[in-house]
Write a structure and sequence with these properties.
Strand content: 35-45%
CATH architecture of the largest domain: Beta Barrel
Largest sheet: 6 strands, antiparallel, barrel
Radius of gyration: 19 Å
Oligomer: single chain
Shape: globular
Number of helices: 4
CATH topology of the largest domain: Thrombin, subunit H
Number of strands: 19
Distance between the termini: 57 Å
CATH class of the largest domain: Mainly Beta
CATH superfamily of the largest domain: Trypsin-like serine proteases
Length: 287
């Protein structure tokens, strides 16, 4: 594989990677998706309607959250700036195991840190449902979330999101393009989720642990809390995050009855969450 001009590729990637800060949540990374101020990052990096973005040259901008999807873990930010060094998006469906992968981000406060590895696989990962991930053996740390995973030519092939075992998982660039084209979802829970395996009764159950609950959201109104693990809906267990997405996207406002764990694994709790416009006089509280 040709690596001529790798230094130039790395420098372009650094210039197109930003530092994202949202309140007291620490910091993450983001990608300049177009030169007119569109920034892509992870939903779990952002919170509330605004964030602050710092460019490679030190300039800082207040960013508006243009759209946010906690289920996909993607967010689109907009800053008032032009002629920015935007990244080129690659076709993640054409990736093959063994190709060079380059990750850039701001781990542990080190701005513009770069690490390399190879693509391990592109597709679903056992225990994470049917969703497709770009899986690479690049080294990531807190602060890399939302930054680019690129190929040897500097084309973005994914948005770095999490680490499992020895592999970094990135949201494929084609999924990012679909998110930007489709815009935000109408069905909104208001919680940032992460897939987990829950040991229960000598077996393992798929669950979605709540990392954050947005104030005023349906999840907050239902008294769901960070650390709660969503198991399913009324006897229908979740097998992937897509199962929750389908439950949220039922037609019109509706009550979503969730089963979840809190504190320990022996007692299953239940709660009714109002999705969409609430019905008059109705409220729901976690059991």
């Amino acid at each position: 594989m040709p690596t001529d001009g790798f230094g130039e590729v790395a420098e372009r990637l650094r210039r197109s990677t930003v530092l994202v800060q949202a309140g007291g949540r620490g910091s993450g990374s983001g990608v300049i998706w177009d030169g007119d101020g569109l920034i892509v990052t992870n939903a779990h990096v952002t919170g509330g309607p605004n964030a602050q973005v710092q460019l490679w040259d030190g300039r800082k901008f207040e960013a508006r959250i243009q759209s946010r999807d906690p289920l996909l873990d993607l967010a689109a930010l907009r800053i008032s700036a032009n002629d920015l060094p935007a990244m080129n998006s690659g076709d993640s469906s054409r990736l093959r195991p063994g190709e060079l992968a380059i990750a850039v981000g701001n781990p542990l406060g080190f701005v513009g840190a770069l690490t390399t590895g190879i693509i391990h696989a592109v597709g679903p990962l056992r225990g994470f449902g049917p969703r497709t991930w770009v899986q690479a053996d690049v080294r990531l740390a807190p602060g890399n979330s939302g930054g680019p995973l690129a190929d040897a030519r500097g084309r973005v092939i994914g948005i770095n999101t999490m680490v499992t075992g020895r592999l970094a998982l990135a949201i494929p660039s084609n999924a990012v393009d679909q998110f930007l084209f489709a815009g935000p979802r109408n069905a909104w829970l208001g919680a940032t989720l992460h897939p987990v395996r829950v040991p229960r009764e000598n077996t393992h159950t798929f669950g979605l642990v709540i990392l954050e609950v947005e104030p005023g959201s349906p999840a907050a109104n239902a008294s769901l809390m960070p650390g709660d693990i969503l198991l399913g809906t009324e006897g229908n267990p979740f097998r992937s995050i897509a199962d929750l997405a389908r439950s949220l996207e039922a037609y019109g406002p509706h009550l979503l009855r969730l089963e979840f764990l809190r504190g320990h694994y022996s007692r299953v709790r239940r709660v009714a969450v109002q999705i969409g416009e609430p019905a008059a006089g109705r409220s729901s509280v976690a059991a």
